[in-house]
Amino acid sequence: MRVVLSTLVAFLLVSMSVPAEARRTSDHDYRYEQIWSSAVRLLRVDYGFNIRDRDRGIGFVLFDYQDHGRTYPGSLEVVRAEIGGQQKVRVTLNIPAQPSYVERMILDRLQRKLRADFGEPITRPVAREPIVEEAPEEDARDEDTEDDSDRDGRS
Asked: What domains can you pick out in the chain, each with its CATH number?
């Protein structure tokens, strides 16, 4: 009876555990529009995945990852972000039922696609704090001194 009970408890603990959700993120210097169009083309055209839903304004794509005849739900987010004082675009890919190397492979291919389509990204300058210049100190001397002869109208 104890063996059956301990086996049942072990089974319940294993079945109740939450699977680890791996998600991969990469940051890019390309424009949002360039990344969005390349990511959608990569998923739909290059890989042939079915896109279930997408919204360019919010920056998400829901798709079906296909592997050996089976499909797994996946999502891709494209978000503008400020990282280290620079404007970048962050891409987050999540395919929970697959190992994390699958997500890394897709993100690496997206990076190669961006370079092939648009060349090297233009590096934007780092945003700096505005420099506040101090007002120059006024000279202690009176620069408005006039000759007394000028005041009287005599020369």
From this structure: 21-118 (3.30.310.80)
User: SS3 for 108?
Assistant: helix
* pTM of structure: 0.65
What tokens appear for 56 in the block? 């360019």
- The tens digit of pLDDT for each residue in 29-63 reads 999 999 999 999 999 999 999 999 999 999 999 99
A 10 A CB-CB count for 36 gives 19
Q: How many other C-beta atoms are found inside a 10 Å radius of the C-beta of residue 74?
A: 23
Say if residues 36 and 59 touch (Cβ distance below 8 Å). Answer: yes
Distance between CA atoms of residues 51 and 83, nearest Å: 29
Strands 60-67 and 86-94: unpaired
Residues in a beta bridge with 54: 61
Give the strands of the sheet with 70-83, arranged side by side.
23-28, 86-94, 70-83, 60-67, 50-55
Distance CA 88, CA 112 (A): 17
